[in-house]
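In response to a reviewer's request, we include the raw inputs and outputs for one of the modeled complexes. The two entities were modeled together in a single run.
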Amino acid sequence: MFPELNNLLNTTPDQAEQGKLTLLCDAKTDGSFLVHHFLSFYLKANCKVCFVALIQSFSHYNIVGQKLGVSLTTARERGQLVFLEGLKSAVDVFFRPQEDPHPLQFLREANSGNLQPLYEFVQEALKPMDSGEAAWRCPVLLVDDLSVLLSLGVGAVAVLDFVHYCRATVCRERKGNVVALVHDSGDAEDEENDILLNGLGHQSHLILRAEGLATGFCKDVHGQPKGSS
Amino acid sequence: MLELLLALGGLVLLRDSVEWEGRSLLKALIKKSALCGEQVHILGCEVSEEEFREGFDSNINSRLVYHDLFRDPLNWSKTGEALPGGPLEALRALCRRTDPGPVTVALDSLSWLLLHLPCTTLCQILHALSHQDSCHGDSSPGEQVHVLGLLHEELHGPGPLGALSSLAQTEVTLSGVMGQASAHILYRRPQQRPTHQTQWFSILPDFSLELQGGPPLESQPNPDPHTPSTAGSTAPWAEPGYQPHFL
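The model returned the following structure tokens for the whole complex.
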């Protein structure tokens, strides 16, 4: 995790708030560093993390995680991390019987419908521990990222419904946190993405926005983050 | 200001944005209605009942009836806890309610309903809901129905926004400058020309409303907030007041 970001947010892994939806947003820059930050932050905070990783491979996140002081391999082996590797699962979904539930079931359907199977995956991954298992601090759902779901044919309302249910279960019922990245298409006039971004903006307790510099590319400074709550 | 917003009855449309949220004003209006002795029915789609009731004392809370569409609005959990029939039936049930006395119905939010129901269906139900006092033959003329609807402007195109606007007797558009919130209010009194008013205000932690004098004249916003909002409108990230931090 980045200590500077912790200072900015006035938080530490020991003092992580619970029951919150955090929206990560990037515009004209790459905001994935925020995803890596929160992944390492919540693993260090001893939270049970479900990571819906749709953009990169497990090994990519693991390599970056190690530079930030966490081992995703170790976290997964001891049951702290449930990792949905979207790039691999997206292929699996086409080689299993259609009646078998799969979190990325929408990829098989002509009409993308809803993300209920993905929600049920998250619900199962973050269900409360049975007695005798390690006690984690609180459940956390991390999604990288939600915009790619729009690119895969899911409607903005369906994505909002998925986040709604995750918020109801993870944040409200189980007093955990949800962190999700959405890209801001800016001037691209992507109505569906704007609905998603603004809809999540209304639901979020904290919005962290990474922007490219107005003056363009700079070797030493890549952008500026803004936060609002 | 709250009395004036509730004076006309019918639909009060609260148009908010990510930057200038309207739920606090909605709760202030709910508190006002409850203090006037009205029962308040809340169709809660976006926040849990526990979160919505936060900040209200027990006297106010005892007058609130929360219809929970937040926990399982689409019946995904299949535990039997979802409101039967989903959002459409929940709305129709509000129209059929037979409680005596004045009542306020709060829709939190109209945006959630508009994203999940056809616009025409929603408009028909809203019209029926906000004209219930004229439908119940034995109602006294003094009993009004107040319908408070929270609408997130950036989520909808000009068509649905215009349709809902045409149903509203009172329309409040929230904005502000330099951290100071303002409400641009449009009143549509019967047989009179619409009137406009701008109020600067703040909502206190107990959901009382405090009027403010407003920011310095040179920093006041454009007085015409009815520039059509579309779903592609820019989020207010670049507004003054945000502090960039360099990492």
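As requested, we also summarize the result in words. Chain B touches chain A at residues 18-19, 21, 46, 48, 50-51, 70-74, 76, 111, 115-116, 152, 154-155, 230-233, 235, 237, 242-247 (CB under 8 Å). The radius of gyration of chain B is 18 Å.
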